[in-house]
């Protein structure tokens, strides 16, 4: 009888820590799933928090700028150097002749782009790390982020076939909701790959892989825990 009691105590202690770990995994996964799932929007939030910390006004999140930022990195996505520099500089005319039309930006609403920041990395990084390690890793980029002339911002990101990820931030001094306006009541043209801020469309492409892997691994661990629990329950009952 004593042997059975000890075995049960050991069993419940063993299960206790496993269920604690499982609950933490499920909680982390739930938090991830409940998020809006657009890392470009996260970057806009980080930019605005950085500005307000310096008593600067927040920037309007412009979907038109965001889509053109995506177009920028889509064009340059095979040009990432070993030290994380985007070795690509599209002609200025591409904004009005290529990027804008591909996004569905209404031509009469084109404003002035007052600055841009681009960066790339061999692997996907969470928005906060992408901001500090890739996009704003020197005083020049930080000064551009905090420029007082900016009124609007747009962020785009995309994953390349070789595994690299590219980010682009575009700034403008245009008037809110009157520059870089997307056609079709702000919907614009749906993009096949990548992600951009202010979009009503879900992100697509390689940047969703980390989220998929997180969900997959959580489900694998959940099944392992459940199988162990069933086996140990059956063993104790014997």
Automatic annotation (TrEMBL):
Residues 1-33 form the signal peptide. The keyword Membrane applies. The keyword Membrane applies. Keywords: Membrane, Signal, Transmembrane, Transmembrane helix. The chain crosses the membrane at residues 211-231. This is Ferredoxin-like protein.
């Amino acid at each position: 009888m004593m042997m059975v009691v000890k075995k049960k105590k050991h069993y419940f202690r063993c299960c206790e820590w496993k269920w604690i770990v499982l609950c933490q995994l499920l909680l982390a996964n739930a938090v991830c799933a409940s998020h809006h799932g657009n890392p470009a929007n996260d970057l806009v939030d980080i930019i605005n928090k950085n500005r307000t910390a310096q008593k600067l006004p927040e920037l309007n999140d412009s979907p038109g700028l965001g889509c053109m930022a995506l177009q920028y990195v889509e064009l340059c996505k095979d040009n990432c150097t070993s030290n994380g520099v985007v070795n690509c500089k599209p002609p200025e005319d591409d904004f009005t002749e290529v990027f804008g039309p591909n996004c569905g930006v209404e031509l009469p609403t084109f404003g002035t782009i007052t600055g841009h920041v681009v960066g790339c990395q061999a692997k996907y990084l969470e928005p906060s790390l992408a901001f500090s390690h890739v996009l704003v890793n020197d005083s020049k980029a930080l000064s551009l982020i905090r420029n007082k002339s900016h009124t609007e911002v747009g962020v785009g990101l995309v994953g390349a076939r070789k595994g690299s990820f590219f980010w682009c931030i575009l700034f403008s001094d245009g008037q809110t909701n009157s520059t870089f306006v997307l056609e079709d009541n702000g919907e614009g043209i749906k993009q096949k790959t990548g992600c951009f801020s202010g979009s009503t469309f879900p992100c697509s492409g390689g940047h969703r892989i980390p989220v998929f892997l997180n969900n997959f691994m959580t489900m694998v661990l959940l099944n392992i825990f459940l199988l162990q629990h069933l086996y140990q329950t059956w063993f104790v009952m014997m």
